[in-house]
Structure formats: structure tokens, C-alpha cells
Amino acid sequence: xxxxxxxxxxxxxxxxxxxxxxxxxxxxxxxxxxxxxxxxxxxxxxxxxxxxxxxxxxxxxxxxxxxxxxxxxxxxxxxxxxxxxxxxxxxxxxxxxxxxxxxxxxxxxxxxxxxxxxxxxxxxxxxxxxxxxxxxxxxxxxxxxxxxxxxxxxxxxxxxxxxxxxxxxxxxxxxxxxxxxxxxxxxxxxxxxxxxxxxxxxxxxxxxxxxxxxxxxxxxxxxxxxxxxxxxxxxxxxxxxxxxxxxxxxxxxxxxxxxxxxxxxxxxxxxxxxxxxxxxxxxxxxxxxxxxxxxxxxxxxxxxxxxxxxxxxxxxxxxxxxxxxxxxxxxxxxxxxxxxxxxxxxxxxxxxxxxxxxxxxxxxxxxxxxxxxxxxxxxxxxxxxxxxxxxxxxxx
Length: 396
What we know:
- The protein is 31% helix and 28% strand.
- The model has no long low-confidence stretch (mean pLDDT 96).
- It is of the alpha+beta class.
- It has helices at 13-24, 43-46, 62-81, 100-112, 122-128, 149-163, 203-209, 288-301, 303-311, 318-326, 379-392, and strands at residues 2-9, 30-33, 50-51, 85-86, 90-93, 117-121, 137-141, 145-147, 166-169, 174-179, 182-185, 188-197, 216-228, 239-242, 254-257, 263-266, 270-271, 337-351, 356-357, 362-366, 369-373.
- The chain contains 11 helices and 21 strands.
- Strands 5, 6, 7, 13, 14, 15, 16, 17, 18 and 19 form a 10-stranded mixed β-sheet that branches.
């Protein structure tokens, strides 16, 4: 039986940064297991690379408390290791005057969180983002930056392996928790002193095997992207976001210039039929009926989810995606948008007691384990700061 002082289930950004923090605190026997052949195959390696800047999150929440410090630490990490980093900022625009109160609410929330933000007028917006348009005012976020997620993950893996104190066990899918301080995986039985569940889209299933988080379920939402091409792509300098619907944890289709020069639009938030349903049918498995049932219950009982379920699937169609994007900019033609294979899954936590979408990170624990549920955006941004919070909950 393979054993380790600390076993981390999940080699995404949370698992890797937690292992790094534990090394810093003196731990020397850490095993990271993952069902894939390498780290970050899912949400951690498929996100837009945006480092968020504390704008959207309720003051005092785990997401708010970790986002700005995580942004600073991740930028510092990229600079120290020569990883791609683009400090290009973000603007949030009002598509019509009805969104101005929401924009000002965002400004107030961001200010409470300590974010570096400013309300700007249309003339200032034109100087910062020539293609963007707004209804009177926009919100400027100076600290929003962009990284290459895969480069960050590769750097973290190398750092951990080079320490000689962290081992990886790939192609090892969690199966069950048959007794105290032992788990079964597809690569055999693993014993541990303490277990951390950082399994991302499968974190609820792992937690349930420990008898924890039983009133929570993860529901997948698919993020589809398109690429901006032609001369208008040169006009986008940073990121252009809409004012989000505060009732839901999704930020809406937006423009982002990446560290390698391309400008992507997305993601959508389409209810998916599988935790890895990246294509139309690819990734749909035996769990699909259960996911459809949960979606149906939410559709009936949660008006906020119902609005998402009715609107977002239409963005599979190019003309609907285009119409959504066009509201953020002065000019755009359908030919400016090119299809792309880029897609991702957001595993959104649902509280079965209230049928509500959970808006913050959730931690569940017992004497031998800690479970990270709902590691949604800004989890990548927050990770280096959030890992310290997680490490505080482990035995010294």
C-alpha cells in the first residue's frame, strides 16, 4: 500500500499550490494523486488566464479575502520564474443605462475589498479601450492581469518534483474510502496521515465518500469561446467585461487579450450534461440522467437558474453569441468571430436544501480530512493565498 503523511486528491491549481505551501511550512512527505496523466487537465488548465482583482465578491467571503492577495502573489510568482504575464487591466461596461446602478454597486463592493478601481467616463474609456462602448460610465480595474495557466501549472509541478519531498501518482482515480486513513484508487490502495480533497469537478463525490457535504452537489456549466480576428482584434488592449447579473455567479461573455496575443470571447455558462462535457456529446457519461434531473429541479425551483438555462444554450449558435458580444463594443461584424476548440467546465456547487447556487468557496472537514468544494473562479487567482488558509486547517 502506498502511504504518505499528506495525500492531496487533485493535481489542479489548488492541489499544487497547497503542496507548495505545505513544503514551505516544513512538511516533507506529500503525495498528489490525479485521475489524469498530468496536472491541470480540466478547469485549472482550461480557464482564460485572467487574474481577477477583487471586484465581484461579497466583502468578508473566502473569495474576497483571498483574491487580491492571490493576484499579487501569482504576479510575483510569474515574474520570479520568467513566466508569461500581461498587466493590461480590465474595463466593465454598462450595455445600457439600466445597468449603471449595478456598475456603481460593483464599484462600492470592489472598494470595500481594497481593489484598485475607478469609475471613468466614455472619453476615458475610449482612450483605454478604443473598441469598447458604455452607457455613460465604465469601471476600470488596474490590477486585472493575464497569465498562461499551463505555464504556471508546469512550473509548479517542476518545483514540487525538484523538492524531492512531493510525489505524484497519476492515472489514479479516487474510488472509495473504505476505512480510517485509507482510500482506494484505480492505481491501488493509498494510506495517509491526513487527506485533502481538491478534486475540482468531482470534489462533491469524494466528500460524500467521507460522509461530508451530503447536502451539496456540483452541477456542470459549459464555457464555450470564440476568437476575435482581423483588424478589430488589434483594438482590444486588455479585457472588456459586461456588468454581470448579480443574482448568478457568472460574469457573462467578455473580450480578453491573452499573454500570447490572441483575443478570445467567452465563456458562456451553458448547463452541461457531464462533468467533462466539453463538446456537444463528448464527455456525456452514465451520470447524465442524474445531472439532467438536478437541472430540472433547479429549473422549477430557482428562477435565477431558469433564466440561465433558457438564455445561455442559445449562444451555441454563432449569431446569438455575436449579438451578445456586440453589445460591449462600438463595432463588430459576424466575420470578426472565428470558432475555436477552446472550452471549459465550471463545476458549480448547489445547496440541495435551498436549491441555490453557492457563491463562495466551501470547506468541509473531519479529524482526518479537509474537502475543498466549489473551487470556482477566482480559484486560480486566489490559489497562492487560499492555500495558506487551507494549510492552517491541517495538522502542523
